[in-house]
Amino acid sequence: MPSVLITGANKGIGLAFAQSFAVDGWKVHACCRQPDKAKGLQGIEGDISIHKLDVTDGLRVASVARGMLDEKIDILINNAGYYGPRLGFGEIDYEDWAHTFQVNTMAPLRMVENFIEHVAGSERKLIVNVSSKMGSVAENEGGGAYVYRSSKAALNVVTKSLAVDLKEQGVTVICVHPGHVQTDMGGEQAPLTISKSVSGLRKLIGKVTHEQTGQFFNYDGTIIPW
Ligand SMILES: NC(=O)c1ccc[n+]([C@@H]2O[C@H](COP(=O)([O-])OP(=O)(O)OC[C@H]3O[C@@H](n4cnc5c(N)ncnc54)[C@H](OP(=O)(O)O)[C@@H]3O)[C@@H](O)[C@H]2O)c1
To answer: Cα of 128 to ligand 1 centre, how many Å?
Structure first.
């Protein structure tokens, strides 16, 4: 049975990923900060293990990885993300910017460093970093959003370097934009439902090849310029 590990799996896109893989019979490792409050995850039927994990806690990441040494992970989805306060030019909270980098940029790399053996030893060998079109330099016509944009742009650079470094081991690393989705982060007015976003992403994840490693995909499978 193939297996997937998802961070930030208690709500939004992460929870929908967990539900979707579980329905298809995958072994799901669902990570979240507060498992006791993760009612949506607790309600999922299937082969699911819930792990307590704040992705900024390096010791905890290492301990969860060590506890799963015998397990293979076919797909690692670095989904946990943080937008932070919506402050513009002249209002930047520099401490919060650092925290945003820890969640959106540094934690995905730390996850890969800790789980590389699990992924490289699996059949699928795929790492998916959930980024955002907001991190595309080419597509930035709206300006602002300094903190979130820069953290996702940096995640894209991390993704590219990982793709190069892990290519020899046969590990595929991509970053994806889920669309503007109706979640707590995306807001109620967002045009895309969670289920449309995740079904598009599942299709993409299902067919992406090793030759496509290091690319930045939209949820519909098209390429997003850096
Ligand atoms: N929604 C959109 O329109 C959109 C667009 C582009 C990209 N994205 C990206 O898609 C991903 C999922 O976002 P979403 O829309 O589903 O947002 P969401 O509903 O706000 O969910 C964010 C998830 O990340 C988790 N998280 C935040 N900080 C964490 C930490 N330190 N450790 C572990 N988990 C943490 C949250 O856990 P808690 O519940 O514990 O806070 C939650 O599970 C994010 O990477 C986001 O940047 C979303």
So the answer is: 14
